Amino acid sequence: MNRSASVSFSGRAMGEDIQINSLRGRELFSFLPSYYETSRVMRSDMDAKGSELDALYLAMDATVGQFFVRTATWGLERWEMELGIETDLAKPLDQRRAVVESKLRGAGTFSGRLVKNVAEAYDGGTVDVTFHPAEWGFTVKFIDTIGIPPNVEDLKAAIEEIKPAHMAVEYKLRYLTIAEVESMTLYENEHTTQDRYLGGGA
Fold first, then answer.
1. Beta strands across the sheet bearing 127-132
2. Fewer CB within 10 A of the terminal residue: the chain, N end or C end?
3. Is the pLDDT assigned to residue 107 strictly greater than 80?
4. pTM of the model
5. What's the CA gap between 136 and 167, in Å, rounded?
6. Alpha-carbon gap, residue 4 to 198, rounded angstroms
């Protein structure tokens, strides 16, 4: 009896039993000679190796992200330590990033540009800084942000740190105008928080 004739199967069907789910596994498999296309062993091997490469590339991307403040996650603690900032894990990542970025921007001679850079690092929007030499003070006015910025206390602390002690600072917040409120739909009005209305955040 011919043993090779006793079992009949399609090589392609056997190969298709093993799916290559790994992105880099499929890429590796594409470089193999065509006669491996139906091999379950090679498919499984490339999928396993590709999965390890996928995990490696993800880890590398995550590590590179820690070198930039705006993409740092677990690496923020290192940034904070280097800059002398107290780590508060209860704060959202975007607020912690804003503190770090503001600290980085806050180096140099005190000026309106410096205050603007620091304030915009926290707020994420446009900020206008106006000096009042006669009163020995300046005003920080929020242009884009409506209502009270979520981390305004951190911003105040940062500006206190960079400004001369003899200068006073005033903060002007932007609230929805009557015209803006009147143009809102009922749905928009119902889903707008009170702090965005004048007096609503007091």
1. 127-132, 137-146, 168-174
2. N
3. no
4. 0.46
5. 5
6. 87
